[in-house]
Specification:
The complex is a heterodimer. Chain A is of the alpha/beta class. Helix content of chain A is 37%, strand content 24%. Chain A has a six-stranded mixed β-sheet with strand order 6-7-8-3-9-10, sandwiched between helices. The radius of gyration of chain A is 18 Å and the shape is globular. The interface between A and B is medium-sized, with 27 and 19 residues.
């Protein structure tokens, strides 16, 4: 078996006295999508933030392409350049245009010449239905458009894996579809991803495996039809039952 | 308007008004002293521009040091904190005295003795401490998620600061910075204590020699000619950023 793109080994993380992650073991193989589901506060977002080294883990290891990235001697900046993270609240840069948002990482982190970055940025924006918005400021866009810009921004440098943190949770229901379509599109292209989501239908459709987090532990993991269709653990059953109500 | 009109009427009809009008608002005295006062006012303007540039740069450096988090910079943070506490806490007029008379009294070679330069240094010390705190407030007002987004793109912390945080912070503090500029433009008159022939000083000398205070009014009008347009600019900027915030 090949080396997973992303791998967590016994990852723990506490904020003060609150243990948010209590020993997470998880692997994301190349071209696969792993969906993290679970109640708010179950540790999904923290896990993604730890993977992108925005939070420091307390114990365990996180590996990217087989290399431990949570070692103190590893340059966090260089690791982050190999990953893409999309936030729930988009976090676009309000003082820049859409295109400037998209090329910032390419130009300032990857040293891509601006003209080249812009050309690629335009292509990606067009692909996600944003061709005519490149000169606009983010706050003049709808939530769904902003989130697609954020996805383009995170994907512009072709990261090894895309980390999606509840990217549809802040959106009005009628805007969710476009963003899910964009994820579907990237998945179809073979982009490796780890996504925290509340959209069970979508997790079932796009994910190759689903991990159910409960109080900082992965209680159940497996193919979506199993975890979502025929959960074995009582916590998973309870969580899914409550969602269906 | 009504209140102002009433007050004006009260002043103009007061028993002492003819004497006051003659001593403070003598058109003849204003006119004859105006060229000299205006000549002195150029020194104020030059002083203002130079000190302002120094203050903007020095204030930013101090603010950046104070907002830094690296343990290695701790001694600098301490110095910056003491600096702002000290120079913000001492009345500007006292600083002008201390620097203007204290430094030459040391009789050390290499230190400036020109009162204009010394006055400029005193004003720079005082205002850079104020402006540093304005910058710092602006930097603190930019949400942490903006930094996260920049880091997630693979930017180094200093590039995140330069391209994402500072541009937004500086935009946000434009109006309060301009407020401090207005204040500085007026406080330039304080260097008259040290002897330089700036507008207030010349007006004062003329007033003393003619027993008529009208030249002071001429100086006041000149200050207003600069500060009022700046105040309108503050209003306009405030209105703009209000829409965005």
């Amino acid at each position: 078996m090949s080396v997973p793109v992303l791998e967590m080994k016994g990852v723990t993380k506490a904020f003060g006295d609150t243990e948010v992650l209590r020993g997470i073991d998880l692997a994301v193989e190349e071209h696969r999508a792993v969906a993290l589901i679970g109640a708010s506060g179950s540790g999904k977002s923290t896990l993604l933030r730890c993977a992108d080294l925005l939070e420091e883990i307390d114990d365990g290891d996180i590996l990217l392409d087989g290399e431990v990235i949570t070692d103190p001697s590893v340059d966090k900046v260089v690791v982050r350049r190999r990953l893409g993270l999309v936030f729930q609240a988009y976090n676009l840069f309000p003082h820049m245009t859409v295109l400037e948002n998209v090329v910032l990482g390419e130009v300032r982190a990857h040293g891509v010449p601006r003209a080249q970055a812009e050309e690629r940025g335009r292509e990606l924006l067009a692909r996600f239905g944003l061709a005519d918005r490149e000169r606009d400021r983010p706050d003049s866009l709808s939530g769904g458009q902003q989130q697609r810009v954020a996805m383009v921004r995170a994907f512009a440098s072709r990261p090894r894996a895309l980390l999606l943190d509840e990217v549809t949770s802040a959106l009005d229901p009628e805007l969710v579809g476009d963003v899910l379509e964009a994820i579907r599109d990237l998945k179809g292209e073979g982009v490796t991803m780890m996504l925290a989501t509340h959209e069970m239908g979508f997790a079932r459709e796009v994910a190759d495996s689903v991990a159910f987090l409960h109080e900082g532990r992965i209680v159940e993991i497996g193919p979506p039809e199993q975890v979502l269709g025929d959960p074995q653990q009582p916590e998973t059953q309870r969580f899914l039952r409550r969602l269906r109500l | 308007m009504l209140v102002l009109g009433g007050l004006a009427a009260l002043v103009v009809t007061s028993p002492g008004w003819p004497a006051v009008q003659e001593t403070f608002f003598s058109w003849k005295a204003i006119k004859s002293s105006f060229p000299d006062v205006l000549g002195g006012f150029w020194l104020d303007v030059k002083m203002f521009v130079i000190v302002e540039v120094v203050v903007l740069i020095l204030g930013l450096v101090i603010a950046l040091v104070r907002t830094s988090t690296s343990p290695a910079l701790f001694p600098f943070r301490l110095i910056a904190t003491v600096y702002t506490d000290l120079f913000r806490g001492i009345p500007t007029i006292l600083l002008v005295y201390l620097v203007g008379f204290g430094i030459p009294a040391l009789q050390l070679s290499g230190l400036p003795t020109n009162p204009v330069v010394l006055g400029g240094i005193a004003l720079s010390l005082s205002y850079s401490a104020y402006v540093a705190e304005v910058y710092r407030a602006g930097i603190a007002s930019i949400h942490r998620s903006q930094r996260d987004a920049a880091l997630a793109l693979g930017l180094t912390p200093s590039r995140a600061l330069r391209h994402v945080i500072l541009p937004q912070a500086i935009r946000r503090v434009g109006p309060p910075l301009l407020n401090d500029f207005i204040s500085l433009q007026k406080d330039v008159a304080l260097i008259s204590i040290l002897g330089p022939q700036e507008a207030f000083r010349i007006a004062e000398i003329t007033a003393a020699s003619t027993f008529n205070y009208s030249p002071l009014i001429a100086a006041a009008v000149l200050y207003l000619a600069v500060t009022v347009p700046m105040a309108r600019l503050v209003d306009r900027l405030g209105g703009q950023s209000g829409v965005k915030a």
